[in-house]
Amino acid sequence: MAAAKKPAAKKVVAKKKPAVKKVVAKKPVVKKVATKKPAAKKVVAVKPSGVKKPRAKKVKEPVVSQNDLDKARATANSEPWVAILNVDLDPANISSGSVSLDWNDHFIAKLVRAGYKGTDVEMVDQWFGTLCRNVLQENWEQDQADPTNRK
Question: Which of 36, 79, 131, 149 is the most exposed place for a label (fewest CB within 10 A)?
Fold first, then answer.
């Protein structure tokens, strides 16, 4: 028998695997830095510019007008009191406007004793109308009493 031929061995070549990089998370490196202590400094008081110290808030006292003082005084003395607070005139018609009045309870009581009827505002309105008519009538009578003004 003849020697059997062995089949030719195939040459096996190992393929190189591509190189895979392994990524490894690195810890942050903390470097120690030698620090110097600052030299002691002298403390000098310096007034900061533009910075104001907070001040204690002042309590504002209510503003009291002279009319309020007069009204309180008259009321305390049980006296009637009335005052003109303001006069508003229409700029387009100077003959038209309004008058604001203030009064105390003793003034209202005096109006009631004088025969005025209605609410406080109605009685004061009636009184003021009567007052204005009386002023006009008196001016007219004085004007007529002057001999140069008679016709």
Answer: 36
Q: How far apart are CA 81 and CA 103, in angstroms?
A: 5
The alpha carbon of residue 14 and the mean position of all alpha carbons in its chain are separated, in whole angstroms, by 89
Q: What number is the average pLDDT over the span 124-131?
A: 96
Cβ contacts of 95 within 8 Å, gap of 6 or more: none
Going from the C-alpha of 42 to that of each of 45, 122, 124, the distances in angstroms are 10, 80, 78
Residue among 98, 129, 97, 135 nearest 116 (CA): 129
Q: Residue 13 and residue 64: Cα distance in Å, rounded?
A: 112
pTM above 0.85, yes or no: no
How far apart CA 90 and CA 96 sit, in angstroms, is: 6
